[in-house]
Design a protein that fits this description.
- The complex is a heterodimer of chains A (about 280) and B (about 375).
- Chain A has about 280 residues and is mainly alpha-helical.
- Chain A is built from 12 helices and no strands.
- In chain A, helix 3 runs antiparallel to helix 9 and helix 8 packs across helix 9 (about 190-215).
- In chain B, about 25% of the residues lie in helices and about 35% in strands.
- Classes of the chains: A mainly alpha (about 280), B alpha+beta (about 375).
- The interface of A and B includes residues 181, 198, 199 and 201 of A.
């Protein structure tokens, strides 16, 4: 029977060798076991989150009914959206500029632009704390303007990622396409809009995804720049954990995981649909 | 309107230097309206730079370029009445064929209905009718090139510039596109200026060819003149294959001349060359202009006349190398002086390649008007 017949394992067919399967299994376990435990215990009917005492969804109701938590989530999403838009614009322009033009101190700019990625987050956090204190940044603004300080801090560490992915995409650009567009009468702006932007679009989508998720789950820098009225979701979860690890924290975290996965899926799907439309 | 009696492109004393490197060195040439003009030269000779200066992507360091009588100084590429087909074709990968071809028209603000008609007309011209909605990555290299051609032709430029148009195609397709490009050029009547390093391409398509060497025009002539009457050693050697022998001009009269070559012996010509007596000259002789046969096969009495018809030059040698190419066989023959000469022989019958073999003694002869005497 074909179902049970074993064909010999071909030399490069590693996915069928036992040791490879064990290895992949171990990696998956290592990566996902904590997450799975977190999700499972969000349904635990117990105040203390150590022993399984039966299934319930009441902690989800509790989490969603927690006004502070919902507000923190709203803050996080707002900051992430604003930081993503600003990072895309800044990062893409910086990438195009570094790729396209020669200007004084280009080497210095090139070297320092990715500094926010390299500098330890704790240092950035302290730096922002001192910076906003020194300039006397107002802390009593109305929502969403009170999120300005956190948003600025997030843009700082998000836009170098956008610059990086856009630059690597630009490296594959055929300059003759730019010349061809000009040859057909296009102005610099039309070349940028009609030829360059479509070429770097996948990098823009990737950069936006990176920025959004980085901003959404940042804790260290946000912790130093947030005030009592500007709690973000990770900071709120942290403060809840300090009192006790209840299944409510698990439920909130699970919601964040689902949200991130769904957003990533939507972005990839949108990109994929476009890519399919382009080839057919 | 374009005046057909005036050159469409005038290149006047144009030089281009990149730092210390001179890419184009004081070139002047006129390209006539409606002709298929080819810039031919080895890589790095400056031919592409010249083309890019016409398109406006490079600016001349010195001199000026006029298109249809208008000085192009200060006119950017997007405002010039020329269009270019790039070496990589540069078809926009995110646009369909129709959008690619329509791009220039849309930029120019042509109305929708006319855009559609002109795109369809241009695609028909390059035999891509029905491909409107295809994406470039679903097409072969040859088809993408046609898209690039249609995209330029749809603009109805005064001049179409083509940068190495056939270099990326395989040999069969290249031969076919050579014919198609010539046909297309005749049909649309637009001046074509092509850059190539391939002499076959140049000879088969061009009305006139400018051979470029080290940023300078070595010779400007029609294909057959270029091949049969090369002006100097560079052209003789670059266009086609040739035997070149150094010698001294010992006789130079209006109806005859002789060159004494240490390698080839005395070479007689049935016309004058108007060079200084005793000057160092070079004799260029194409391999296909030399007849090859078994020594002593003729019926004449004297030894020399036995091997060569009246008025022919004559030499003897030994076959040192042979390469059978199907339509012809190429021989490398060691002359009695020790010099080597290449001879090609058409395989007129199926058994011709059996006539000779390695180390055979052979005699050669060629007409007195076959060698070209080169002074430089």
């Amino acid at each position: 029977m074909a179902l049970f017949a074993r064909t010999p394992i071909a030399p490069l067919e590693y996915s069928r060798t036992l040791w490879m399967r064990l290895w992949v299994g171990a990696v998956m376990l290592f990566l996902y076991a904590p997450l799975i435990v977190l999700v499972i215990f969000s349904f635990n009917d117990s105040k203390r989150n150590v022993v399984w005492r039966g299934f319930t969804t009441k902690y989800y109701e509790k989490a969603l009914g927690n006004d502070q938590l919902v507000e923190a989530l709203l803050n996080s999403l707002t900051i992430a959206a604003l930081a993503t838009i600003a990072s895309l614009a800044l990062g893409a322009v910086a990438a195009v500029m570094l790729w396209r033009f020669r200007f004084p101190l280009k080497g210095a700019v090139d070297g320092t632009i990715s500094l926010p990625i390299i500098v330890p987050e704790i240092c950035l956090g302290v730096a922002f704390l001192m910076f906003f204190a020194a300039v006397g940044w107002p802390t009593d603004l109305v929502w969403p303007f009170n999120l300005g300080a956190i948003t600025i801090a997030h843009i700082t560490f998000c836009f170098p990622f956008v610059t990086m992915v856009v630059r690597s995409r630009l490296a594959t650009f055929n300059r003759e396409q730019e010349e061809a567009a000009k040859d057909l009468g296009a102005s610099e702006w039309q070349v940028f809009r009609d030829v360059l932007i479509p070429h770097i679009k996948p990098a823009l989508v990737a950069g936006a995804l990176l920025s959004f998720t980085l901003s959404l789950d940042d804790f260290v820098i946000t912790y130093f720049t947030s005030g009592p009225d500007t709690i973000t979701f990770p900071v709120k979860v942290y403060s809840m954990v300090r009192f006790s690890v209840t299944p409510e924290v698990n439920a909130a975290s699970t919601l964040l995981i689902v949200l991130t996965v769904v957003l990533t899926f939507i972005a990839l799907k949108a990109q994929g649909v476009k890519a399919i439309a382009e080839t057919h | 309107m374009t005046d057909p009696t005036k050159p469409i492109i005038q290149i006047q004393n144009v030089s281009k230097r990149f730092g210390k490197v001179t890419a184009v060195d004081n070139v002047s040439l006129d390209i006539n309206a409606g002709e298929f003009f080819v810039l031919l030269g080895p890589s790095g000779c400056g031919k592409t730079t010249l083309l890019r200066m016409i398109a406006g992507f490079e600016l001349p360091t010195e001199g000026r370029i006029l298109i249809d009588g208008q000085d192009m100084a200060g006119i950017p590429p997007n405002k010039r009445p020329v269009n270019m087909v790039f070496q990589s074709y540069a078809v926009f990968p995110h646009m369909s064929v129709a959008d690619n071809v329509a791009y220039g028209l849309k930029i120019a603000g042509v109305k929708g209905g006319e855009v559609k008609d002109r795109v369809a007309e241009a695609l028909d011209l390059v035999k891509l009718g029905g491909f409107e909605s295809r994406m470039p990555d679903q097409m072969s290299g040859g088809q993408r090139q046609r898209v690039a051609l249609a995209r330029s032709l749809v603009m109805r430029p005064k001049v179409l510039l083509l940068d190495e148009p056939l270099s990326a195609l395989d040999a069969k397709l290249r031969a076919q596109m050579q014919f198609e490009l010539s046909e297309l050029q005749e049909k649309v009547g637009i001046t074509f200026v092509t850059v190539t390093h391939d002499q076959d391409e140049a000879l088969s398509m061009a009305c006139r060819i400018a051979v470029i060497n080290k940023g300078d025009v070595s010779q400007l002539a029609a294909p057959s003149d270029l091949y049969e009457y090369p002006a100097n050693r560079f052209v003789a050697d670059f266009v086609g294959s040739v035997n070149i022998f150094e010698g001294k001009l010992t006789l130079d009269e209006p109806d005859k001349a002789a060159v004494d070559c240490p390698g080839l012996g005395k070479v007689y010509l049935n016309h004058g060359v108007t060079g200084p007596h005793g000057a160092d000259v070079w004799v260029a002789l194409r391999p296909e202009k030399i007849y090859l046969h078994v020594p002593g096969a003729g019926k004449a009495v004297t030894a020399a006349a036995q091997d060569a018809p009246d008025g022919h030059n004559f030499a003897r040698g030994k076959i040192k190398g042979m390469s059978y190419l199907g339509d012809i066989t190429l021989f490398e023959i060691e002359l009695e002086t020790g010099a080597r000469i290449r001879v090609s022989r058409p395989n007129l019958s199926r058994h011709d390649q059996e006539d000779f073999t390695w180390d055979d003694k052979v005699s050669m002869h060629w007409r007195a008007d076959s060698p070209v005497v080169l002074l430089g």
